Amino acid sequence: MERIRNKKASSIAMVLLVIAVGVVALVSIPEMVSASNDWYVNSAGGADFLTINQALISPQVQDGDTIYVYCGNGYSESNQITKSVSIIGITNNGQRPMITPSSNSPVFDIKKQDVTIRNLEICGLNSQSQSVHGIRSGVSSTEVSNVEIDNCIIYNFSKGNGIFLNKQPGDFPYPTSHYIHDCIIYGNTIGIHIKSDPNIQGALTNHVVSDCIMDNNHLSGIQNEGDNNEFNDIESYNSNNYGVYFLDSSGCKLYQTETGSTNIYNNKYGIYIVNCEGIDITGYGNDSENDHLMIEENNLYGIYAVSSDDIQLLYVIIQSNSLLGLNYDSVLNSYVDYSIIKDNDIFLYNSDYNIFTYNDIYDSSEKIEIGLHGSDHNYFYYNNLDRESPSCFFNIFKWGIHLTPKPI
Question: What CATH number does residue 206 fall under?
C-alpha cells in the first residue's frame, strides 16, 4: 500500500512539473510579429503585379508592406487605399512612374492610417468633366492619420485639387497628421486643399507642408481651413487668386527655416486671411534680407486680412505688390515686427489695437502712405520710415495712429 501511495505521489509531482514547465515555456516565448514584405508592380510585366490596384486588393499584401512601382508603360488607375502600406516609385533616369485616373475618382483615395506615397508622378486629365483629385485623404469612417506624401509631382487636375484633405460626411473623424514634403503641385484648381466643414465641430489639425512648390493653380496654391497646421519653406506663385488662403483657421504657421526659403509672388493676392485667429507668418531671422519670408510682386495685395485677430508678422519682406502691401479690414490685436515694407502702402480699415515695431517702411517714390479709416489705437513704435529716401514724408489719412520714432 505504501508503494502505491509513493507511486501516486510521484505521478502527481511529474504532472505538476510538466504543467510548470509548460507555463514557463509559454511565458518565455516572445510574441510573434509578422514581418513586412516588399512587393513589385510593373505594367510591362515581370513583377508581382501589373497594376497598383492589383497589389492593393491582393490578400497577400498586408498592413506594413511596401509596394514598389516601376515606370513600366504608365498606369491608368483610380485606387482606394484601405491598408497601411507604402507605395514608392522606382525612378528611371530621374523619371517617376506616371499614374493618371481611370475614372472620376482620385488616383489615390486614402482611407487608412500609416500610409506613405513617394516618388510618383500623378497627372490629371484636363478634359475631365467632373471634379477629380490627385490624392484625397480622410473620406473614411475611421480616423486617417500619419500619412506621408513625399517627392511627388501632382498636376493638371483642372477641375479638382492636387491634394485634398477632407472628411467623411456626418459624424466621422477628421484626418490628422499628414506630412506633405518636397512635392511640385501645379495646374490644379487648388494645389493643396485642407478643407473643414464649418457646420461640424472639429477641424483638420496637425498637418505639415514643407519644401513644396505650388505653381499656376487656378484658385489658390494652398487653401487651409484647419487649425494648428504648419507650412514652411514653400513657394506659391502664378495663381489667379491666392498664393496662400487661410479661412476659418486658428493657430497656423507659415514660416521659413534656417536652410530654406518661403516666397509668395505673382498671385492676385499673396496671402489672404479671413475669419482667423493666431496666424503666424515668420521668417528665420533679421541678420539679412535672405532670412526674411518674402511676399512680393502680387497683382493686387501682398497680404489682405479680413475679420481676424492676433496675426503675427515677424521677419517678413512685403514689397512691390501692385495695389497695397498690407491691407487690414476689421483686424484686431495684431503685430508687425522687424519686417521690411518697401514700395508699398499700408491701409487699416475698421482695425484697432494693431502694433508695428522696429520695421523698415520706405518707398522709392519718396512718399510713404499709411491710410486709416474707422480705425483707432494703432501704434507705430521705433520704425525706420526713411531708410533710403531722406526726403520722403509720412501721410496719414485719418487720426487713430500713434507714432514713436526709431531712436538714433
Answer: 2.160.20.10
The answer for residues whose C-beta is within 8 angstroms of residue 263's C-beta and 6 or more apart is: 235, 236, 237, 293, 294, 296
Chain-centroid distance of CA 6 in Å reads: 78
| DSSP code for 158 | T
385: closest CA among 375, 376, 394?
Answer: 394
* Domain assignment of residue 213, given as a range: 35-218
- Encoded amino acid at 14, one letter: M
Q: Does the residue 191 lie in any domain?
A: yes
Residue 307 forms part of a structural domain? yes
Task: Determine the residue type at 222.
Answer: I
Cell of 399: 487720426
Question: Kind of pairing, strands 355-357 and 378-383?
Answer: parallel
The strand ranges marked E within 292-400 are 293-296, 301-314, 316-319, 324-332, 335-337, 340-342, 346-349, 355-357, 360-362, 367-373, 378-383, 393-396
Residue identified by cell 489682405 is 304
Which cell is 230 given? Answer: 504648419
What residues are paired with 88 via a beta bridge?
A: 68, 118
Other CB atoms within 10 Å distance of the CB of residue 407: 5
Q: From 215, 216, 196, 214, select the one nearest 204 (Cα to Cα).
A: 196
pLDDT at 17: 47
**Identity of the amino acid at 62:** Q
Q: Name the domain boundary from 168, 199, 218.
A: 218
Please indicate, yes or no, whether residues 266 and 368 belong to a single structural domain of this protein.
yes
Enumerate residues 6+ apart whose C-beta is below 8 A from 259: none
CA pseudo-torsion sign 129, 134, 138, 142: positive
Q: How far apart are CA 290 and CA 257, in angstroms?
A: 11
Asked if 253 and 225 count as a contact pair (C-beta separation under 8 A), the reply is: no
The overall average pLDDT reported for the chain is: 86
pLDDT < 50 stretches in the chain = 1-5, 7-8, 15-33, 387-400, 405-408
Query: Is 4 a member of any domain?
Result: no
Say yes or no: 196 and 105 in one domain. Answer: yes
Distance CA 279, CA 325 (A): 18
Whether 279 and 293 have beta carbons less than 8 Å apart is answered as: no
- Give the per-residue pLDDT at 51: 98
The residue among 306, 328, 317, 305 whose CA lies nearest residue 265 is 317
